[in-house]
User: Which sequence fits this backbone?
């Protein structure tokens, strides 16, 4: 078995500013050793440790999709030591990636189901990965209706805007894009907070409908009752958690909620599972 | 089962001889007690040690261990590409450790050697190490190891278990690794199996009889996590805690660690250091949010991990070997035996 | 000490009974010999749990910050000096704290007593000035005065300097002619020997920070060793990082330390970190005539400017 602490060397291939306030950037990496890309075979919903020698590592959800080949993509919010350093790096710089880590959205279980994706703010990265995955011609028929509710503070704070607007035009996915508010008179999508848009637009639950939620704690807190009102049961609500992590492989001990380690047993849990564990996230 | 008698007069010479094959570790007396240290040339394990301040865990899991490095010099072909610090493949032997510490190594192994991942640093060290234990004839008053699935003459995790017979050691060879170590020392005087077994049995019974401290953890398994987690006693247990990490550092079973990078000029190192769930930094997010922000939450985490989560996860008993180190070292006398009693006897009132 | 325990319990009982305070912070008996544990009591029935003896070496001023409502605290001379420091530094308000002062004849040096035995101590009690200590292999009758902690043997403020009530008769203060013999001894070493002394002092440090966390002065929301942006100190066992922690912590306590000894009491490695802090206490005394925590109206010397401040170090 290989050394799980040893990152694969990657080169920064592209850097895009992802939001109007420049607090998020999307980094596209290519593997220096092409064979590492195969080893880094992942599922939508997993994360990786971005590893900068001499600076440190950070766990970040994988924003690219398993169906996109030749690169991996991560959208990173500038907040701590490592992310600040990363934001100052340039195309061509060498660093490392460790992963893929953690579990993923339960794609097997979601086959032949209606899937409702709910995201807020920066927490749309693994959801993007998931949408691309589901919309892939080889996969689309595996799923029934796909609904997406995604909101941010303002239009310029929405991640992957071009893709969102493209998905809007398709008829095999129902997009419900929203912003908290905007002065842009040409804005043609929703205005309002995510929980409210969910309540108004998300499909009612039957036993074949599952919701995947990813977002800031406050959004999750208010979206849960909205889903319950729509008839979603605890096991039909799938969430992805974040906790402070170091090793990413279930050994360093800090990210636990009860006996579950968010890095290895998660980050994806159903609400049913979470309701049995201490709320230490 | 093979037994070997070692005349104490030959002990030093034999141990010295084993250095040809082994890097030796063992108890060394320092200012405030015994420590398990790398035995440099001419140092022998101090077999008078009844108990060490720090456990044997550092032999496999040093408090600070460099795991990776990289050059940051862009003129170099492999700049910014991390590499493993080469592992010293020389065989290691820890001589004179206590049975509860060997049991602890087995518990820690469950964390570092899993179906999904193998921690190469811990596992390589583990595989290179021979554990030569010595039974505790007179267990101290804080030893509650018989309540934790080990005991003063427990063999779990050991390659050799020795009994101290005043002028000689009687060594029970438990594994091939143990046999190889004894051979490397030149200890080859085989003792009668039947007599030796009987002698070990007497010593074990005598030692176990001397254990005065006991805990009962039998009811913990059947309680729910949330019942214990939400129990009302945690604030009282945690009040005196100063959130130093002493209990976790002296604990032979605490394995949590931190990973830290350091850069010096054009050279980067990645280290892992022992970490402690007592520190607020352990769980603090970069956003400032901290899921275990209060000391009550952190104290609860430590005891829940040892006495509940571990049971639920592995079904191998509690994550404590009853060495009593945390009981003795805690500056405010938070006593895991008392906490275990409170948790084990807790019944949620409706 | 027995009468003082009775007095403490009575006072605590009355305070809780009359609801004058919400809680009382004191010491309770430990689970092992020579141990007591800080405890908070909210019900008058629980006042029976309160004890006070020569093993109460921690400083309860460390437990009174960020408490809600009015609380009572049991305080030795040094503890009261730290309460004074807390009040000056706006960590607590005087009217929020009911101080049950305990005149103190010193706390015992547990390591020194442990060192008399090869095996573990299984029994400890004190009878006035006599300590009865027992292990499985021997019994010792010791004179407490021979086994005082170093700071207690040099203490000149055994009586509480600030209190609402005293739980015992005032005790005679010790007259100490040479208050800093240890510092002078270290100062007399040549540079290499002195460096060697400090290297040896900290060599077993495991960076648990028990010294910092037991210290009432160390209440910074983020200690410099825990700061990550920027990171001041490495987190591993590198000697430079370990020493940086000890040196800087000592400097941060300059002019504020009461030499209560809680740091040494808490250290699981028995490191005498007072070797660092006492040098700065001596400097405060020599340069500013200052001893911490004696006067509610004066700020610590490094926290205030006076034209008379010594400035010989400015060259």
Assistant:
């Amino acid at each position: 078995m290989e050394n799980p602490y040893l990152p694969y060397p990657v080169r920064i291939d592209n850097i895009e500013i992802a939001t109007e306030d420049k607090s998020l950037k999307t980094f596209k990496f290519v593997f220096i050793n092409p064979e590492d890309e195969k080893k880094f075979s992942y599922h939508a919903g997993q994360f990786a440790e971005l590893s900068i020698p001499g600076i440190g590592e950070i766990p970040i959800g994988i924003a690219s999709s398993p169906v996109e080949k030749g690169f991996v993509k991560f959208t990173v919010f500038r907040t701590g030591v490592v992310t600040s350093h990363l934001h100052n790096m340039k195309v061509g710089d060498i660093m490392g990636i460790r992963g893929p880590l953690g579990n993923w959205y339960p794609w097997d279980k979601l086959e032949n189901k209606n899937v409702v994706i709910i995201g807020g703010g920066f927490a749309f990265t693994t959801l993007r990965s998931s949408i691309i995955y589901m919309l892939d011609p080889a996969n689309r028929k595996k799923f029934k209706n796909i609904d997406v509710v995604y909101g941010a503070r303002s239009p310029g704070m929405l991640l992957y805007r071009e893709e969102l607007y493209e998905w809007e035009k398709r008829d095999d996915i129902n997009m419900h894009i929203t912003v908290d508010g905007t002065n842009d008179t040409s804005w043609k999508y929703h205005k309002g907070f995510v929980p409210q848009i969910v309540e108004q637009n998300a499909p009612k639950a039957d036993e074949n409908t599952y919701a995947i939620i990813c977002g800031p704690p406050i959004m999750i807190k208010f979206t849960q009752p909205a889903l319950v009102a729509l008839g979603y049961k605890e096991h039909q609500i799938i969430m992805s958690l974040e906790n402070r992590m170091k090793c990413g492989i279930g050994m360093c001990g800090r990210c636990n909620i009860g006996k579950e380690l968010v890095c290895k047993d998660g980050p994806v849990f159903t609400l049913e599972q979470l309701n049995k564990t201490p709320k230490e996230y | 089962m093979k037994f070997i008698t070692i005349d104490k007069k030959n002990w030093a010479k034999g141990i010295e001889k084993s250095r040809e094959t082994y890097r030796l570790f063992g108890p060394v007396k320092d200012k405030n007690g015994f420590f398990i240290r790398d035995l440099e040339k001419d140092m022998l394990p101090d077999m008078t040690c009844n108990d060490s301040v720090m456990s044997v865990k550092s032999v496999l899991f040093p408090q600070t261990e460099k795991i990776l490095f990289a050059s940051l010099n862009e003129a170099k072909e492999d700049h910014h590409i991390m590499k493993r610090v080469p592992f010293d493949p020389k065989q290691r032997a820890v001589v004179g450790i206590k049975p509860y510490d060997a049991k602890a190594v087995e518990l820690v192994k469950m964390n570092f050697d899993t179906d999904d991942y193998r921690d190469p640093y811990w596992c390589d060290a583990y595989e290179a190490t021979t554990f030569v234990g010595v039974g505790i004839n007179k267990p101290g008053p804080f030893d509650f190891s018989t309540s934790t699935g080990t005991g003063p003459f427990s063999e779990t995790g050991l390659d050799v278990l020795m009994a101290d017979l005043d002028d000689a050691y009687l060594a029970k060879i438990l594994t091939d690794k143990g046999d190889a170590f004894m051979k490397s020392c030149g200890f080859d005087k085989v003792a009668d199996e039947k007599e030796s077994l009987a002698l070990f049995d007497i010593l074990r019974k005598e030692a176990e009889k001397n254990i005065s401290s006991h805990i009962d953890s039998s009811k913990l398994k059947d309680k729910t996590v949330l019942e214990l987690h939400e129990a009302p006693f945690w604030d009282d247990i945690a009040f005196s805690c100063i959130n130093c990490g002493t209990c976790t550092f002296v604990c032979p079973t605490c394995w949590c660690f931190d990973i830290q990078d350091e850069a010096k000029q054009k050279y980067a190192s990645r280290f892992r250091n022992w970490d402690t769930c007592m520190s607020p930094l352990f769980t603090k997010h970069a956003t400032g949010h901290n899921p275990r922000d209060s000391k009550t939450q952190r104290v609860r985490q430590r005891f829940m991990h040892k006495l509940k989560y571990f049971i639920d996860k592995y079904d191998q008993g509690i994550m404590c070997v009853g060495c009593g180190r945390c009981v003795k070292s805690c500056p405010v006398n938070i006593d895991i035996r008392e906490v275990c009693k409170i948790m084990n006897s807790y019944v949620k009132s409706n | 000490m027995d009468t003082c325990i009775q007095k403490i319990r009575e006072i605590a009982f009355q305070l809780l009974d009359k609801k004058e305070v919400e809680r009382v912070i004191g010491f309770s008996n430990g689970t092992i010999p020579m141990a007591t544990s800080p405890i908070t009591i909210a019900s008058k029935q629980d006042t029976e749990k309160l004890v006070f003896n020569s093993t109460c070496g921690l400083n309860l001023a460390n437990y009174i910050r960020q408490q809600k409502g009015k609380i009572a605290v049991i305080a030795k001379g040094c503890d009261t000096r730290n309460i004074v420091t807390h009040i000056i530094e706006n960590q607590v308000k005087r009217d929020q704290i009911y101080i049950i002062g305990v005149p103190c004849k010193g706390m015992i040096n547990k390591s020194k007593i442990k060192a008399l035995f090869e095996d573990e101590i299984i029994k400890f009690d004190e009878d006035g000035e006599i300590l009865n200590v027992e292990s499985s292999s021997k019994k010792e009758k010791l004179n407490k005065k021979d086994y005082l902690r170093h700071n207690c043997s040099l203490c000149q403020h055994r009586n509480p300097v600030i209190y609402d009530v005293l739980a015992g008769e005032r005790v005679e203060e010790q007259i100490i002619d040479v208050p800093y013999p240890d510092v002078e001894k270290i100062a007399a070493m040549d540079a290499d020997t002195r460096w060697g002394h400090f290297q040896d002092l900290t060599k077993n440090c495991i960076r648990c920070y028990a010294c910092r966390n037991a210290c009432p002065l160390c209440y910074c929301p983020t200690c410099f060793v825990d700061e990550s942006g920027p990171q001041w100190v490495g987190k591993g066992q590198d000697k430079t990082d370990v020493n940086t922690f000890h040196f800087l912590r000592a400097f941060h306590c300059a002019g504020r330390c009461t030499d209560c000894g809680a740091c040494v009491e808490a250290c699981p490695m028995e490191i005498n970190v007072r070797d660092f802090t006492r040098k700065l206490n001596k400097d405060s005394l020599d340069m500013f005539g200052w001893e911490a925590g004696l006067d509610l109206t004066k700020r610590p010397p490094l926290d205030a400017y006076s034209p008379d401040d010594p400035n010989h170090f400015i060259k």
